[in-house]
Amino acid sequence: MNHIDAAQIMAADCLCFRARRTARAITRAYDAALHPTGLKATQITLMNAIALGQNSMQPVAKLGETLGLELSTLTRNLSVLERGGLVTVARALADRRVRIVSLTDTGKTRLAAALPHWKEAHTTITAALGSETTNALYTALDRATKALDVG
Amino acid sequence: MNHIDAAQIMAADCLCFRARRTARAITRAYDAALHPTGLKATQITLMNAIALGQNSMQPVAKLGETLGLELSTLTRNLSVLERGGLVTVARALADRRVRIVSLTDTGKTRLAAALPHWKEAHTTITAALGSETTNALYTALDRATKALDVG
DNA sequence: TTAAAATACTTGTATATACAAATATATCTT
DNA sequence: AAGATATATTTGTATATACAAGTATTTTAA
């Protein structure tokens, strides 16, 4: 097998490429729909995960696990939201190593205003995919995430 | 529907989050396997796309289309490879707006050395997923890419 | 034949991502 | 209680991504 053959096989088979390409396309579509909100899909995903905690608060480590994100990435993503006045981060009382992230009032308002746009993007995109492809994609993505979770 | 409900629906349903989370997990797995090569999955994907052209050359626009990447992103990704001596970029003779990207000899060598590691990563990961999930994921990702292609 | 429009990219600016190393705090061990 | 170890997170450094605006070149049209 010469290197051109290997290259053709990679181009045809690489799961990493395909997963990333699809994620890029989906992200562009969501981001376009979210443009009027001034927030990106990744940002409302993160804010939404915070909103699901008691009193719209979550420890950093829990967010990382929920989102499947490296903590170092999370720290950086949170600092963008913090700079924008959308979240605050404070040390936990019980264990001062732990940091608790909270949505500010502004953050809650902005998230609530963004969710209808998310819903619109979601409806448009799942309609473009069709229900069969949408369902197949959900199932396959979830199985892949589970399979790769433990490492 | 109050905002907590909406948040729960988004957490459960957001295709963008799921696609990105899976892409992150897959990328981490491939990158770990590629670590000894000094190249990342995104980089060998790009180099491989160049390698598929006549004489291992491709115009920038064609690469963007093949990879589903914004040209601005491609310019940046190519400059990393260029700095590393793996590719060169030159103006086309026929139309001097067009830039032709070529693998250098070093680039060809490094790519050829990396492909077995890619293959190993691919085998490990598809084994972890199982053939059924792997096939379902391929099919679903391809359909999604096609459906979102025209925008 | 030259001004306008189109094309093919690059640059400015900003966010997203992650590995490796560092820091801060807590827990455990002796 | 002091030192060793573990845990939770941040920082250093680097790549990946994309929108908007800019540049260079070619094509079109008057």
Write the topology of this structure.
2 copies of one chain form a homodimer.
Chain A: H1 3-13, H2 15-34, H3 41-51, E1 57-59, H4 60-67, H5 71-83, E2 87-91, E3 99-103, H6 105-129, H7 131-149
Antiparallel strand pairs in A: 1-3, 2-3
Helix pairs in contact in A: 2-6, 3-6
Chain A binds a DNA duplex (30 and 30 nucleotides) through α2 and α5.
Give the strand content of chain A.
Answer: 5-15%
Can you count the helices of chain A? 7
Describe the largest sheet of chain A: 3 strands, antiparallel
Instruction: Compute the average pLDDT of chain A.
Output: 94
- Widest sheet: strand ordering of chain A: 1-3-2
Structural domain tally of chain A: 1
> Based on CA inertia axes, which overall geometry of chain A fits?
globular
In N-to-C order, the SSE pattern of chain A is HHHEHHEEHH
CATH superfamily of chain A: Winged helix-like DNA-binding domain superfamily/Winged helix DNA-binding domain
Tell me what the CATH architecture of chain A is. Answer: Orthogonal Bundle
Instruction: Bin the helical content of chain A.
Output: over 70%
CATH class of chain A: Mainly Alpha
Parts with pLDDT < 50 across at least 5 consecutive residues of chain A:
none
Radius of gyration of chain A: 18 Å
Q: Based on helices, strands and strand pairing, what is the structural class of chain A? A: mainly alpha
What is the first-to-last residue Cα distance of chain A?
31 Å
